[in-house]
Give the backbone structure.
Amino acid sequence: MKKKAFAVLQTLVDFIFPRNCLGCESFLKFYEKHLCISCQIKMPLTSFHLIRENPLYEKINVQFESTAVTSLFFFQKEGAIAHMIHLFKYKGERKIGVFLGEWLANTLQESAFFKDIDGIVPVPLHPKKQKKRGYNQAEIVGATLSKKMGVPLYTEVLERIKNTTALALLGESARKNEVTNAFIQQQPFPTAPQHVLLIDDVLTTGATLAACASVLLKNSGLKISIAVLACRL
Ligand SMILES: [Zn+2]
């Protein structure tokens, strides 16, 4: 009965304030969120959560020893994924981050490699950048995963002390130089986790995640895995 009432109400709200699909701009049905069903099934999912030694795992493991690595989507310059990440990161659309975070959490729950995760650490923004943006996008994804997986979120453990700018414009070695020593562990974990999941929005070279991992790996015996919304291979 509740479901029926929701359907009627959402259909009515959609009639007055139509919602558009972020992929194809068609009007969304009451049961669709941000993407129409047809765009959802066309999204470039990696399914890396099902294959331990996937290309992203290999890309990361030449930089540091990680346990498992996955990305929800392959990044595509044009199309829904770029549009959604842009809105989420730069236009204040936090609910898109929650939507994508829930999608990512569902895939992690299907995987055998993320079952013993007992802590989530989002890649921090420099405090100045976070103040300007009003939020840290990786933290929104991390908080969504934390809620869905029932695992603590640690936002105060890592701190970004170097305000790196425009990483997207730099090449691989310049990026690496830019993020080296950009992070510190500003406080110990309140309860020592065994297997931490590091979260970021987009993985390009992996240099930022490797810089975070090199700090966290000083906690002896800690295993680190990675999950991001989208990756460039
Ligand atoms: Zn669509």
Notes: The beta strands are 69-74, 119-122, 158-160, 183-185, 195-203, 223-231. The longest helix spans residues 94-109. DSSP finds nine helices and six strands in the chain. The two ends are 46 Å apart (CA to CA).
